[in-house]
Design brief:
The complex is a heterodimer of chains A (about 350) and B (about 400).
Chain A (H helix, E strand, L loop, with lengths): L1 E5 L4 H12 L3 E8 L17 H14 L3 E5 L1 H17 L6 H20 L4 E3 L4 E6 L2 E6 L8 H4 L4 H4 L2 E2 L7 H10 L21 H9 L4 E5 L4 E5 L26 E6 L4 E5 L1 H4 L1 E11 L8 E6 L6 E9 L2 E10 L7 E6 L2 E13 L5
Parallel strand pairs in A: 1-2, 1-4, 2-3, 4-7, 8-11
Antiparallel strand pairs in A: 5-6, 8-9, 10-11, 12-15, 12-17, 13-14, 13-16, 14-15, 16-17
Helix pairs in contact in A: 1-2, 1-7, 3-4
Chain B lengths: L8 E2 L10 H11 L10 H21 L6 E4 L2 H19 L5 E5 L4 H14 L2 E5 L9 H10 L4 E5 L13 H10 L4 E4 L11 H4 L3 E5 L10 E5 L25 H16 L1 H22 L3 E3 L10 E6 L4 H10 L2 E2 L6 E2 L2 E2 L3 H5 L4 H5 L1 E5 L6 H21 L9
Parallel strand pairs in B: 1-11, 3-4, 3-5, 5-6, 6-7
Antiparallel strand pairs in B: 2-8, 7-8, 9-10, 10-14, 12-13
Helix pairs in contact in B: 1-8, 2-8, 3-4, 5-6, 9-13, 10-13
Classes of the chains: A alpha/beta (about 350), B alpha/beta (about 400).
Chain lengths: ~350, ~400
């Protein structure tokens, strides 16, 4: 098979590409240049857009012995991921840019171009497993629970999965590093990437303030009492506890959490852990890895990257998904994806629109 | 067919051309000998003799005096030395000389030092227009100089454009400049061995040459500097090369350079007619069969080995990848930043729109090129362009 290996310059995608080549595929490495202004040197948080990352990817391709190119997807990435990220925050929602990048860039723009150029598939270093069954391909969690990335791949359709390879899904990270070392890949000891790749210093609030400007407003409680002020609602995420900077402590002395963000009147509502509890959510824009479910599902749901699984009942109604939690759960943020799992299998995902809290205060 | 049993069709001679066996032989012979050309003992004198004999050969091949050859680490350094060296020496003699005249199609090794002088030394950069074939018009140069001759620092104009291959009227420009005592630098990196180049006849003050573009080794080049032209040094140290360019001389490399330069100039006419024929077969073969393929630059007054074509509705990057997979090595002819292709500044200066500029390929032929290479391209280019078109244009069709 002719396989395009997306190589970020990190250890995972390097080992993934090496495994594909070793399996006998005709592999070509491609580094996706996603930043409009690539950083010359690593600055603070690990990203995937620096010139050094491009160089690391090239050196890995040399060691593996495969052709290597850089594809400039900066404009596309900016339009589909960065602008979406900013506008979602501006709307008081909490987006997941990695998921959007997989949906719109890696397994859309890149995959389409690869197929057009005569490649059969795209391979990445994501930790997830693809299982071939008579009914088609299934997406499953990786064997390494600490690294599992099936959540951010939950947007992939059967068509996209049909042309995807995740060669690391059956391996734990420590073994991947050992394998990189064994293969002579110099990125073996490179730190894991984390945070958001296009925010080099890791300061999301600062990035958003620079994009959206300051928009001061009130911090209130569920009863509408003003507790403090903020410099921009986009600096907050549902469930956030730290950095609220409220002068007066709560009457009960318990910590307070962000319950709701209302960009229109610029208010941020805070309350107790109990008030945060959610019984039900409505999500839209579903993406199914296989056929869309028609029956009511008794399944598990994951509500954010690296979040815990919770038991739910899900009902699909066209473009809407109703999810009821068996036990109330906290920190459910509109804008995030709800990914549904049947055991280790990903059923699909949808974007959270609204939540119903246990206490109907908000 | 696997990569190992496939013949590589190398058509990127403007990037670098294979070293001549005779140049490799000369260089490796001297690599096994010891001696710093600045040392006074026997070994030093031997190395010095190698350098000076090489200098004489290169000077003879280029129509210059041996003392006019200043060895550098290559074309980029020679260009930097020419621009910065002329700038400071001209300014020291007359503080009014602040205008640098150049066109937007120069190589980055010329463009960037000029822009740097603008940013750091308050040079006034004046861009000479180019026509749609990528040529500077002498009349435009005359107008620019005559507007205020006293304020011109220097003019720089390449002999032949490295991307589209168009030859430039350097001798005419030098004649105009001479009327006003304005020095002219020319980057002749692409021209040596392809077209006749005679430093004295050209009448320029400084000329850049690179060894690896004409069959010599990497890492060495020269700035040919007229004996009466003053240059302020930019590399200071041991005072080698007339005190203009310090640094221990690479005697083995000068030997390889000399053999290659002699050979390139001696066989220039034969090479030019052979390459022109091959090139025209390639051009007519592509433009005759591939819809939307257009030749860039001057159809006849161009480097014999250069065929630069633009293709509608596809990315040069895609074409390059697909040809590379078939063992055909060409260039998109564009500047690279971390391997990311930018639309060529040369094509944009010639009035190409962004899309045409991105859909371009540069085929450059050299001494190892054969008819079989051309046939391989003509056999593959049709399907490759079709496939590249289906992959479309980057950054187009968002959210498709």
């Amino acid at each position: 098979m002719r396989v395009l290996a997306a190589m970020s310059g990190g250890v995972d995608s390097a080992v993934a590409a090496a495994r594909m080549a070793e399996a006998g595929h005709d592999v070509t490495g491609v580094h996706l240049a996603l930043s409009r202004n690539p950083q010359s040197y690593r600055s603070g948080a690990r990203g995937c857009c620096t010139i050094e990352d491009s160089r690391d990817a090239r050196r890995a391709a040399d060691v593996i012995g495969i052709p290597f190119y850089v594809w400039d997807l900066a404009e596309r990435f900016h339009a589909d991921v960065v602008e979406d990220f900013v506008s979602e925050y501006a709307a008081g929602r909490t987006p997941n840019p990695c998921l959007r990048c997989n949906e719109k860039v890696k397994f859309s723009a890149v995959l389409e171009r690869a197929l057009a150029l005569g490649f059969d598939a795209v391979a990445t270093g994501h930790y997830a497993q693809i299982v071939d069954t008579p009914e088609g391909r299934e997406l499953h969690r990786a064997v390494d629970p600490a690294k599992d990335q099936s959540y951010v791949l939950g947007v992939l359709t059967q068509q996209q999965l049909a042309h995807a390879f995740f060669p690391l899904g059956d391996t734990v990270k420590t073994e991947v590093r050992e394998e990189a070392e064994r293969r002579g890949l110099s990125v073996a000891a490179k730190p894991d990437s984390h945070d958001i790749c296009f925010i080099a210093d890791g300061n999301t609030a600062g990035f958003l303030s620079a994009q959206l400007g300051e928009a001061p407003g009130d911090i209130i409680d569920a009863q509408g009492n003003k507790l403090g002020e903020h410099q921009g609602a986009h600096g907050f995420t549902i469930g956030q506890r730290k950095g609220l900077r409220i002068g007066t402590p709560a009457a009960d002395g318990k910590p307070r959490f962000v319950l709701d963000i209302s960009p229109v009147d610029r208010t941020v509502t805070v309350g107790s852990r109990e008030e945060l509890a959610v019984a039900h959510l409505t999500a839209s824009k579903p993406r199914w890895c296989g056929p869309a479910p028609t029956e009511e599902l008794q399944v598990k749901a994951q509500l954010r990257a690296h979040g815990e699984e919770v038991a739910v009942t899900a009902q699909v109604d066209g473009d809407e998904v109703q999810v009821t939690f068996d036990q109330p759960t906290s920190a459910v943020a509109p804008g995030q994806a709800v990914v549904l799992y049947d055991g280790t299998r990903v059923i699909g995902s949808a974007t959270i629109d609204t939540v119903e809290r246990v206490t109907a205060a908000v | 067919m696997t990569a190992s049993d496939r013949r590589t069709v190398y058509l990127d001679h403007a990037a670098t051309t294979p070293m001549l066996p005779s140049a490799i032989e000369a260089m490796t012979y001297h690599l096994s000998r010891t001696g710093n050309a600045s040392s006074l003992h026997g070994s030093g004198r031997c190395a010095r003799r190698t350098v000076e004999e090489s200098r004489e050969s290169i000077a003879a091949a280029l129509g210059a005096q041996p003392s006019e050859i200043v060895f550098t680490s290559g074309g980029t350094e020679a260009d930097n030395l020419a621009l910065k060296g002329l700038w400071w020496s001209r300014l020291a003699a007359d503080p009014r000389r602040r205008r640098i005249l150049l066109s937007g199609i120069e190589h980055h090794a010329v463009l960037d030092p000029a822009v740097w002088l603008g940013q750091h030394e308050h040079a006034e950069i004046e861009w000479l227009p180019v026509d749609e074939l990528g040529r500077v018009r002498p009349d435009d140069v005359r107008r620019a100089v005559e507007r205020d001759p006293e304020s011109v620092s220097f003019i720089t104009l390449m002999m032949a454009n490295n991307e589209v291959g168009t030859l430039q009227p350097v001798a005419e420009v030098a004649a105009i400049a001479q009327e006003y005592g304005v020095p002219v630098h020319t980057d002749a990196v692409q021209a040596i061995g392809q077209v006749p180049v005679d430093f004295a006849e050209l009448g320029v003050d400084a000329m850049t040459v690179s060894a690896h573009k004409l069959g010599g080794p990497y890492g060495i080049g020269a700035l040919v500097v007229h004996k009466e032209t003053q240059l302020t040094p930019i590399l200071h140290g041991g005072g080698q090369e007339r005190d203009v360019r310090s640094g221990t001389l690479d005697a083995p490399a000068t030997a390889g350079f000399a053999v290659a330069a002699e050979h390139a100039v001696k066989h220039q006419a034969d090479a030019a007619s052979r390459l022109t024929e091959l090139r025209d077969t390639l051009i007519t073969g592509i433009t005759g069969t591939v819809e939307g393929a257009l030749l860039s630059g001057d159809p006849t007054d161009r480097l014999p080995g250069n065929a630069h074509l633009s293709f509608s509705d596809c990315e040069g990057d895609s074409l390059l990848l697909l040809l590379d997979a078939r063992g055909i090595e060409v260039s998109t002819g564009s500047a690279c930043n971390a391997g990311v292709a930018e639309p060529s500044h040369v094509l944009l200066a010639m009035g190409y729109d962004d899309q045409r500029a991105r859909g371009s390929l540069r085929f450059t032929l050299g001494h190892t090129s054969t008819r079989a290479d051309i046939d391989a391209v003509l056999e593959n280019i049709g399907p490759v362009v079709e496939r590249a078109k289906s992959a479309g244009l980057q950054n187009v069709g968002r959210n498709s």
